[in-house]
Structures are given as C-alpha cells and as structure tokens.
Amino acid sequence: MTDTLIAPSLPSTAPASVGSPMGWKRRLIRFAVLGVVVGGLAFAAAVLPLREIGDAVMMLGRTGAAVAIAVVGGLLLSVMVPRTAITIACGALLGAATGAAAALAAAVIAAIATYYAGRWAGRGALKAKSGSKLARLDGWLDRRGLSAVLLVRLLPLAPYGLVGYAYGTTSVCRKRYLLGTTLAAIPSAISYAVIGAAVTKPHEMNPLTLAPALVGFALTTAIVWRWKRSARRPAAPVAA
C-alpha cells in the first residue's frame, strides 16, 4: 500500500499592495474638511475687530508685536486675505524694515501651512488621471522646478493662499516650493511695507521704494524670456 503524502499548504508569497494612491472619495472628504476650516477662519477674520486687535498687539513691544503680526498675518493669508493689504498693514504698524521682515515671515508661514494642508487634502490629485490636462500641468510644474514656483508667485495669478493649497496637490517638492516662494516674496514685502510705513511717515517715501518691485518684474521677464528661448530650440536628434 502506497502512502500518499499531502504537502502542507504554504502561505501565499504574493506581495501585498503598498502605497496605493488615495481614492477620490477620500480626497473629496478631505477637501470638504479643508474647505470648512478655511471658510470658518475666513468668517472669523471678517467679523473680528482687527483694528482693536492690532492696537492690543502693539502693546507687546516691538519684537513681540512683530512676531504676533507675522503669525496672524500668516493665518490671514491662508484664508485668502490679500497679501498686499497685509504687507501694507505690517509697514504701517511696524515701520519699513521691521514691517518688511514681519510681512516676509507671514508669507513663509502661510506658504508652509497651505502647502502641507494641500498635501494632506489631495496629494497627487493633479496626476491621478494619466494623460489628462491636469497630469500634464503637474508634469510641467515638476520639470520647471524652482523657476515655475518663482513665476507663479511673482505673477498675481491667484490669491496667495490658494496658490499654496494648489501646489500642495502637485509633485513639486517642498524644498523648491518653499525656496521659490520665499525668494519671490522678498521684493513685494519690502516695497509694500515701505508704502505702508509712508502712510504714517510720508517723508520716508522716495523713488527707491519701487526698486524691489522693479527687481521682481525684471526677474519675471527674465524667466519668461528664458522659457520662450528654450522652447524655440530644436530637439536634439536621438542616436540610433
């Protein structure tokens, strides 16, 4: 009689799926949560007595006031309050130099907050559908890197906070995004802070006030010119 050997069943070695992309249903829920939070903060910013709050903040001393204004300004930028108004207010409250530093800090705070909020809500949303226009836009932004961030930030294409949320959904790495955003924010932070300071001290206004803004315009023109020039170059032949 022949014994029949039955091999024990072995566990499947098929690899488990890891890193699966976020589903659209989950993205929509997160976008909805983010929209409610941003909308609530925007409503609070609209009804709060900001002038009285500004007076109270100035009682903290120059350094404390600058820190508080930078944090509050960053939150306001995150809920779509125009950056121009915030920067001018920084200059009017703190003076040209300190106001410019506070305005730049507020811009960086808002850039970080909106980028990571956009990452949480919809990372990879643009390239989710391969071959779509959004996927091509995501690839274009990623290829252009730092220069794309600089151009988008220097041109008033959309509210400052909205651009941050949008960049969070792209493939652009955070280092390029934060560096480009910071560099692009410097000219306008200085110019508008000086204008704001001139509201309280008109004699400080001079033609040099426009110099940083002109630098930003020249940089934008140079980036666009460089892109057009590179686009006209014929593609290199592929070796057989």
When the domains are counted, the total is: 1
In angstroms, what is the radius of gyration? 25 Å
Number of helices: 10
How large is the share of residues in beta strands? under 5%
- Percent in helix: over 70%
Question: What is the topological layout?
Answer:
Elements: H1 24-47, H2 50-58, H3 62-78, H4 83-94, H5 96-122, H6 133-144, H7 146-154, H8 160-168, H9 174-200, H10 211-232
Helix pairs in contact: 1-5, 3-4, 3-5, 4-5, 4-9, 5-8, 5-9, 7-9, 7-10, 9-10
Summarize the structure in words.
The protein is flat, with a radius of gyration of 25 Å. The chain starts with 23 loop residues before the first helix and ends in an 8-residue tail after the last helix. The chain contains ten helices and no strands. The chain is mostly helical and 240 residues long. It has one domain (24-231). Mean pLDDT is 75; it is low at 1-20 and 235-240. Helix 3 packs antiparallel against helix 4 (83-94) and helix 4 (83-94) crosses helix 9.
